[in-house]
Write a structure and sequence with these properties.
CATH class of the domain at 51-169: Alpha Beta
Order of helices and strands: EEHEEHEEEEHEHEEEE
Keywords: Signal
Protein name: DUF541 domain-containing protein
CATH architecture of the domain at 51-169: 2-Layer Sandwich
Distance between the termini: 6 Å
CATH topology of the domain at 51-169: Alpha-Beta Plaits
Helix content: 10-25%
C-alpha cells in the first residue's frame, strides 16, 4: 500500500513583486492574517526589514506645466538636501522595485492628474534605515517628522499614500539559508515516517517570496511542496 502526504501552497502577496538579486523590494500592506499564515509553507525564516518606508505624493496645481514641474523638482531637491543631513533618511522611487531619487534621471516623470485640471504630481518613497537598537515606533515618528518638516515650494503639497511600509534589499540572498532549513525539515520527516518511505520535494527552483509578519519584520520563504510515499 502506498500513502501520500502532500503539502500544497497558495502564495499570497502584500503588494510586492518577486525578488531579484540586487534589487530593493518595497512591501506594503498589513501584517499577516491568520488565513495567510496557514497558506504559507511549513519552513520559513524571519528577518528584519532594511528600511521603514512612507510613500508620499507631491502635488502642484500652478497654472503653467513648466512652473508645476519646477516647483515639484525644487521641493524634491529640498528633501534630498535635508536627507543628506540625516544619515538614516533616503529617498527612492519606483513601483515594486526601488531606486534612489536622481533629479537628473529622465525616468522620474511628473504625472498629469486627469481628475483635476492644471495639476501634476509625482510619487516617491521616504525611507529610514531600520535600527534594531531603537524602537520602530520612535523611528516611524522621526520619519513622519522629517516629511512634515519638508520645505514645500509655492503651491506644492504633500499627500500621504497608505501606511508605513517596509523594504528589503536582495531577498534572494536568503535562498540557501531557506533551502538548508527545508532540507533539515525533510530529514526529520523521513526519520519520523520510517525507512520504507521516500520523499520528493518540488518547487525549490522558485524565487524567494515574502510576507509582512510584524511592524518591521518579514517572513521569507520558497514555495515548495513535499510528497511522502510509503510502500
Amino acid at each position: 500500500m502506498k500513502c501520500f502526504l502532500t503539502m500544497s501552497l497558495i502564495l499570497i502577496f502584500c503588494g510586492s513583486a518577486q525578488g531579484e538579486v540586487g534589487h530593493e523590494i518595497v512591501v506594503t500592506g498589513s501584517r499577516l492574517s491568520s488565513g495567510d499564515y496557514y497558506d504559507m509553507p511549513a519552513v520559513t525564516i524571519k528577518r528584519k526589514a532594511d528600511f521603514l518606508v512612507q510613500r508620499i505624493r507631491l502635488i502642484n496645481d500652478s497654472r503653467s506645466p513648466k512652473l508645476r514641474k519646477k516647483e515639484i523638482i525644487k521641493t524634491i531637491d529640498n528633501l534630498l538636501k535635508a536627507s543628506r543631513k540625516n544619515d538614516d533618511i533616503e529617498l527612492s522611487y519606483g513601483e515594486g522595485f526601488l531606486v534612489p531619487v536622481n533629479l537628473n534621471d529622465d525616468s522620474l516623470q511628473l504625472i498629469e492628474d486627469h481628475k483635476r485640471s492644471d495639476t501634476s504630481y509625482v510619487n516617491i518613497y521616504v525611507k529610514v534605515v531600520l535600527d534594531e537598537s531603537r524602537s520602530s515606533k520612535q523611528q516611524i515618528s522621526e520619519l513622519r517628522s522629517f516629511i512634515a518638516d519638508a520645505k514645500l515650494i509655492s503651491r506644492t503639497e504633500i499627500e500621504y499614500l497608505g501606511d508605513i511600509g517596509l523594504s528589503i534589499v536582495s531577498p534572494e540572498q536568503y535562498r540557501y539559508e531557506i533551502l538548508k532549513k527545508i532540507s533539515a525539515e525533510n530529514d526529520k520527516i523521513k526519520k519520523l515516517v520510517g525507512g520504507d518511505c521516500t520523499i520528493k520535494i518540488g518547487g525549490l527552483e522558485g524565487r524567494v517570496e515574502w510576507e509582512r509578519s510584524d511592524v518591521a519584520e518579514l517572513t521569507l520563504y520558497i514555495a515548495y511542496a513535499t510528497e511522502v510515499s510509503c510502500s
